[in-house]
Every structure is written in C-alpha cells, then in structure tokens.
Amino acid sequence: MPTNRDTSSSFGVRRRRVLTRVVHRGWRWVQEAGSVTAEHPGRLRFRSIGDGTRLAFPQGTVFGERWIELGGHCIIAEQVTLTAGMMPGLDLGPDPILTLGDGVVLGRGSHVIADTRVTIGSDTYCGPYVYITSTNHSYDDPGQPVGKQWPRAEPVEIGPGCWLGTGAVILPGARLGRNVVVAAGAVVRGEVPDHAVVAGAPARIVRSWDETEGWQPPLRTPAPVPVPEGVTPEQLLALADLDEV
C-alpha cells in the first residue's frame, strides 16, 4: 500500500511536469508575439524592413531605427543590438546609416554599432556574438581617461556572401570583399579582398582563391557532395534515419 509520502511525491512530480509544459508553451507564445516583422513592427519603426525578415524576441538594444534599413528574409536572432548614432534622439540626416542586404543572418548576441555608415551585403551570415562597429575609442591625450576622449568613426563595408565566425570583431574602416570567411574570434581591420579567409588578432589572410591555381594553400578536406536535384526534405530525413540504424 502506498504511503502518504509516496502519494505526495507522485503528485508533486505530476504538478512539476504540468507547470513545465505550461511555462514552455507560454514562453513560445511570448517569443512569437514579441518578434518583429514588417507586418508586426511593435514599437520599432525602421526606415525599411523587407518581407520575411524577423527579429527574434527578446531583442537587444535597438535605436535610431529611422536610419536602419533591413532587407528581405533576414534572420536576426535573440539579444542582437542594432544602433544608428551614438545615442537615441539624434538627427542623423537624410541618408541611412546602417543597411542590411537581403538574407543577412545575425547570430544570437551580436552587435552592429553604426555611428557612421555600415553596410552588410546580401546573404552574409554571422555566427553568435559577432561585433561590428564603425567607432573606436581614441587615446591621443595621455592625461585624459580613454572613455572621455572623443572617439574616431570610419565607415564599415562587408560584401555579399561573407561568413563571420563566432566572436569575430569587425573594426572601424574595415572593408570586406565578396564571399570572405572570417574565422571565429578574429579581429578584422583594413581591407580584405574577395574570396579570402582571414584569422587571428589582428586578422591576416590565411587562404585565398586564385583563378588558375584554386585555393591557396589547397583545402585539406574534400568538397561536400551537393544534394541531387529533385530530392525532397522527406527523402533526406529518411536517409538520415538509415544512417542511424
């Protein structure tokens, strides 16, 4: 015969399971309701926001929306900061300050700080905690605290099709070409040509594409086999199940 303690313990477990389901369902509802899209911008009034673009909830710090342009089908993860100008409430003139092209992905916890012009090209993907800024502290006067000295600002341009790994930092004045790969944790300044791979702090080119020789130094791993045309997602899932058998 079960004791009162067993009955109480069983009831507590069931109650905890019910509460867990309720909390998770409630949080999913909050995430859906709090996300920002062109149809449901909430309090945010961007200069433009394209179809299919979504800012996940909860958002990070966002201000200067009148000077921020978001292309179509962008994915902006949770806690991403997007700012135009040094602080809210400034008049930044008639032109956009921060522009994201179509299909840009900003990973969780990333920051894009645009005190002057910052452009991110279409189909550029950023891993989590990427930091892109057009402004850096100055330390010209050794007698003044660095944080109280007027900062320097230079435009940043990131070309289309780039990949920025987790924790990468893009400094003021950086200009990345097309399809550039930035390794995780790299700190990029200056100009990076098309089809280059950079790594380190400060970042340097560790691999580049040559029209005649291909990748130099050569890639160490074979190219992935593309999915044949006509294969459906259901068929791919079925193949994955077979691999696990």
Automatic annotation (TrEMBL):
GO terms for molecular function: O-acyltransferase activity. The keyword Zinc does not apply. One of its GO terms (cellular component) is cytosol. InterPro entries: Hexapep, Hexapep_transf_CS, Hexapeptide_acetyltransf, Trimer_LpxA-like_sf. Coiled coil: none annotated. The keyword Glycosyltransferase does not apply. Gene3D superfamilies: Hexapeptide repeat proteins. Pfam families: Hexapep. It comes from the Bacteria. Keywords: Acyltransferase, Repeat, Transferase. Belongs to the transferase hexapeptide repeat family. This is Acyltransferase. It comes from Streptomyces genisteinicus.
